Structure formats: C-alpha cells, structure tokens
Amino acid sequence: MNVKDIIALLEELSPLSYSEDFDNTGLLVGDTNATVSGILVTLDTLENVVDEAIEKNCNLIVSFHPIIFSGLKKITGKTYVERVVQKAIKHDIAIFSNHTALDNSWNGVNAMICEKLGLKNRRVLIPQNETIKKLITFVPLKDAEKVRNALFSSGAGSIGNYENCSFNIEGSGSFKGNEASNPVKGKKGEIHFETETQIGITFAKHLQNRILKALFEAHPYEEVAYEITTLENQNQHLGMGMIGEFEKEMDEKEFLKFLKKTMNTDCVRHSTLLKKRIKKVALLGGSGSFAIDAAKKAGADAFISADFKYHDFFKAENTILLADIGHYESEQFTKDLLHSFLKKKITNFAVLLSQTNTNPISYL
Q: Which of 98, 135, 129, 128 minimizes the C-alpha distance to 229?
C-alpha cells in the first residue's frame, strides 16, 4: 500500500475537510506515492519518535498532533520542529496528522473519552455548521430509480438514523440541442419536452466529488443539469466536544476521584465545589475553555477539558463544575483509537503503537 492509500483509510474515520480552519492537517512530510513499509502511531511527532520509527522500519508516522503547525521559513535544525522535519526527510519518513478532523469526528477523540468514562446517550456539544449539502437534479422518469440508487450507493441520502432519504417531484423539462449536440431524447435543433423527476437529496460535504461522479455515470443525459446548495442545518454527528450521562449520579468529590483514576492523571484542577450531584457531563479533549458556555447551556453538571487559564474558572459562576485534567491526559487514548482502527483495516504489514511518552508536562 502507498501513503495515499493509508490516508484514504484514515479519512473514513475523520475526513480532513472537517478540520478547523486554524489547523494544519494532512500529509505534512513525505510522498503520497511512497510504498509503506510500516506505520508508527503516536500522539506527537518528536525526534525520539522519529528514531523509534527508524528502528522499527516504519516509514509512515500517523501523528494526532501536527509537528508543523504554522509556516516554516527555514529548516536549519535550530528548533525541535525543524530537527524533526530534517530527520524525517533524511530517512524518507512520511508524517501525517488528522488533529481537529479527529476532534470533530463522531467516533473520534471525544467519543473515546466518553467510552472510558462510561457515559451514555452521547451527543455532540458544539455541532459544526455548513457541512450538509443538498443536490437537486432532473432525470427522465424511467431513469429516476437508477440515478437515485446510484446516489444512495455513493453515500447520499443519510439523515441521522435514516438512509435512502430523498424528495421527488414529477414535472416537464424542455431543451433544444444545437448542431454539436447528441441528445438522448428528442432531435437536435428541435425543442423537446420530457417528463422528468426532480430528485432532491442531501449529503455530507466531504462526499461531494463521489456524489457527482455517481450522478454523471448514472444519468442518461449528455448534459446533466444539477445544483448544489449548502444547508444551514447543524450536523448532529459532527463537531467539537460531547455530552453524555452516567448511569448513576455521583457526588462531586467521588466524581473527581473517579476522573483522576480513570484518566490516569496526577492532577485535576477544578472550580469551586457546588454540593451537587454529577450525572450529565460535557467534555472536550485538548484545549477546551472556549466550550465552557456551551457546556453550561447544555445543562451539564460538569465540564472536563484542559488548559484552563486562571480567569476561565470564574466562568463556572456557581452553575457547573469545571475540571482540567491536562492536555495530554485528555487525549492520551487517541493513539490507541488510531492504532486499533488501522489494525482492523490493514493486515499485510506492521501497524505499531509508539512506546514513546510525549507528555511534555511533569508533576512534582
């Protein structure tokens, strides 16, 4: 398999088109056509991680965090980022990152935390906007079923827990081909009226190229009339953070002790205890202070995240328990998620889990 084949598999889990605008995801170093000898999965790509890849004959590193976050103007080896890039290039090692694409994935970072904590009835905390599109096309009546099924097979028509969803209207379409045309219906130079079905169907934006390919292959017309619009509907299965519920509520101190043990952290920084029971919990892996208001609005009893600043804790306003478990600790299971996913998809060469601890923070 080539690097591009592995990327295609990872996009099934977390399409890169759902990465945040500020992020730098995708193939950061390397050649998409290079043959993969082995994959090393890590949370961060540091120099010792590249050394580990060399030692284990892995020429592709799948890293949750991107080693190149902002533009590099020089690669002289003066910074840890430059040294990683230099060493990777020298040893023909590709580096791929899916960072916020995996943050936004329904089965991504936050789903993994929900699973570890045993939260049920999970839903996205901050759904993404403008990720659902609608296709409208016009098809001869007798070909409508064929085209509709082709669109369904390509991934269109899925809404929440339902598939094969579409809206269909019958009407009359007119057209007249010029001398260069080759009409399937009617004759060139003559206006023709055809009974047609207008098919309206929604799809996820990352599927657009696949949807159009299926449309063009199944549609009988020489010139296919269609329009695509972006809907304002929120995508309930895509976005930042999640919220779920414990089967049994617990008091705050019990919750904090459970959180510390389950997330294997040496320190939980938290806001003022409110003497309330904890049942509904919001969470967001990584830096999540921007989601405090969303967690409060959702009615969460507690919000788990990382990198809270001093003044962020005031935002609790005696309505919610804020718990900062540490950035690394909130995302530590992400590499297990990526490793497990790739192991199920690939059986013909090594997919290895990095043994390097990349947590840059220690506690005394």
A: 135
212 CB contacts (<8 Å, ≥6 apart)?
A: 226
Virtual CA dihedral for 48, 51, 52, 54, nearest 10 degrees? 160
Give the model confidence (pLDDT) of 192-210 as tens digits. 999 999 999 999 999 999 9
- pLDDT tens digits for range 83-99: 999 999 999 999 999 99
Helices (H) and strands (E) in the chain, counts: 11, 15
CA dihedral 300, 305, 307, 311 (to 10 degrees): 10
Task: Mention every residue, 6+ apart, whose C-beta is less than 8 A from residue 53.
Answer: 38, 40, 59, 61, 91, 93
As a whole-number percent, the residues of the chain with pLDDT over 90 amount to: 94
C-alpha–C-alpha distance, residues 327 and 196, integer Å: 56
Q: Report whether pLDDT(160) > 80.
A: no
- The answer to whether the CB of 140 falls within 8 A of the CB of 146 is no
Buried b (16+ CB within 10 A) or exposed e, 279-312: bbbbbbbbebbebbebbbebebbbbbbbebeeeb
Q: Per residue in 144-155, pLDDT tens?
A: 999 999 999 999
How many residues in the chain?
A: 364
Tell me the CB-side half-sphere exposure of residue 102, using CA atoms within 13 A. 28
* Residues 41, 353 contacting (CB under 8 angstroms): yes
Q: What are phi and psi of 63, to 5 degrees?
A: -120, 130
pLDDT per residue as tens digits for the range 121-139: 999 999 998 999 999 999 9
* Cα 52 from Cα 64, distance rounded (Å): 16
Domains and CATH numbers, the chain: 3-98+333-353 (3.40.1390.30), 109-128+237-325 (3.40.1390.30), 132-233 (3.30.70.120)
Retrieve residue 207's tokens: 């599927």
Give the DSSP letter of residue 4. H
Q: What is the CA radius of gyration of the chain?
A: 25
Rounded to an integer, what distance in angstroms lies between the CA atom of residue 142 and that of residue 185? 12
